[in-house]
Amino acid sequence: MMNLLLQFVLALFATLGFSVIFRVPVKKIPACILIGALGWVTYEIAVFYMQSPVFGCFAGACIVGMLSSICARFLKEASTVFIVPGILCLVPGYKIYSTMEALLLHNYGNTASIGIETLMMAGAIAIGLLVMGVAVGLVRMAFRKIRSF
């Protein structure tokens, strides 16, 4: 539990750094860092219980996508302001590095296995954001129909 709390705090700082780099408006930074940290903690919990970094990326991306859409609605800002800094903690940068290292060392078996897992993680991030974007759109459309009655 203490390890998860430490990772939450470190993810807050990492997302804060990305928020500053991407010039997020100062009033929106607390929401951004919270979204990024919750996305990372979701990833860690999913990896712990499911033993799959691909599913962890999907779950983390779903949380980031959902919370970004909610914050965009309430804070009257584009959802990309919250998605971009929030999702960068989930990007499998070390896996990409390991894939390139294995390729340069002519270890093609590791290159293929690590590379495929890396591509699956990146795809899971994209699919998680897509699924939450569609789900939020459907919920919004349902609320509009309910209001019109």
Uncertain residue ranges:
none
Approximate shape:
globular
End-to-end C-alpha gap: 48 Å
Q: Could you tell me the mean pLDDT? A: 94
Rg, alpha carbons: 17 Å
The arrangement of helices and strands along the chain is HHHHHH
Counting DSSP H or I runs of 4 or more residues, the number of helices is: 6
The total tally of domains equals 1
Q: How large is the share of residues in beta strands?
A: under 5%
Helix-residue proportion = over 70%
The counted number of beta strands is 0
Structural class: mainly alpha
Please summarize what this structure is.
This protein has 149 residues and is mainly alpha-helical.
Characterization of the model:
- The protein is mainly α and 149 residues long.
- The chain contains 6 helices and no strands.
- The protein has one domain.
- It is globular.
Q: Which key phrases capture this entry?
A:
6 helices; single chain; mainly alpha; 0% strand; 149 residues
Protein topology:
Layout: H1 2-21, H2 29-50, H3 53-75, H4 80-87, H5 93-104, H6 108-148
Helix pairs in contact: 1-2, 2-3, 2-4, 3-4, 3-6, 5-6
